[in-house]
Write a structure and sequence with these properties.
Distance between the termini: 33 Å
Strand order of the largest sheet: 3-2-1-4-5
Strand content: 15-25%
Helix content: 40-55%
Shape: elongated
Number of domains: 1
Number of strands: 5
CATH architecture: 3-Layer(aba) Sandwich
């Protein structure tokens, strides 16, 4: 393993998976990339001659601002990780597709993703990004579950 991607949605659970992925990267001498996926597609750059230009311009600028905030947050988290070569990456689209695209772009050998560990009806209704990722990913996926935070069995 030379390159590990760890995903984050900025939730407390995902934030707790990052140190585990960083520890694994240190042990393996691998690079670590923190990745987040924005579930919307980037809007096209507005054409000044098009109708509703001002609305399109505001949407475009709001998207760029969101992207900047996400990247700044990823960089800030990456700076907290000592002793590693840490990169940041942003995916677009569906969660699974966006993560896979990031993994391809950076040449990842492993994806680390956190899981809430839903069971029963909640899992059936809400699905599991981690489970789908494990099924369709072209590289191995390590599903990190915070055992300390899990409800008793």
């Amino acid at each position: 393993m030379r390159h590990i991607v760890v995903t984050t949605d900025f939730s407390p659970l995902a934030d707790r998976a990052v140190p585990a992925a960083a520890d694994l990267a240190r042990r393996l001498g691998a690079k670590l990339t923190l990745a987040h996926v924005i579930t919307s597609q980037r809007p096209p750059e507005p054409d000044p001659n098009a109708p509703f230009f001002k609305v399109a311009q505001r949407l475009f600028e709001a998207d760029r601002e969101l992207e900047g905030q996400v990247m700044a947050s990823l960089r800030e988290r990456g700076q907290r990780i000592a002793g590693l070569d840490v990169g940041v990456a942003l995916g677009r689209g569906g969660a699974v597709e966006g993560i896979i695209e990031v993994a391809r772009e950076v040449g990842a050998d492993l994806i680390v993703i956190s899981s809430q560990g839903r069971t029963g009806l909640a899992r059936m209704l809400l699905g599991s990004v981690a489970e789908e990722m494990a099924r369709v990913s072209p590289v191995p996926v390590l599903i990190w579950k915070d055992v300390a935070a899990a409800p008793p069995a």
